Amino acid sequence: MSPVIPIPASDDELELAPTSDGFGYTARITRRRSDGSAAWTALPPLGEHQDAWTTIQLQGHQLVANSWSAFEVHLDLNTGTEISREFTK
Question: ∠ at Cα 69 (86, 14), nearest 5°?
Answer without folding.
Answer: 80
